Amino acid sequence: MIQTDIIIIGAGPVGLFTVFEAGLLKLRCHLIDSLPQAGGQCSEIYPKKPIYDIPGFPSILAGDLIDNLMQQIAPFKPGFTLGERAEQIEKDAEDFFIVTTNKGTKHRAKNIAIAGGLGCFEPRKPPIENITDFEDKGVEYIIKDPEFYRDKKVVISGGGDSALDWSIFLTDVASEVSLVHRREGFRGALDSVEKVMDLAKEKKINLITNAEVVGLTGQGTLEGVTIKHKTQGEMQKPTNHFVPLFGLSPKLGPIADWNLNITKNAIEVDTFDYSTNIEGIYAVGDINTYKGKLKLILCGFHEATLMVQSAFKRIYPDKNLVLKYTTVNGVNGFE
Question: Where do the structural domains in the chain lie, given as residue ranges?
Answer without folding.
Answer: 2-121+248-334, 125-244
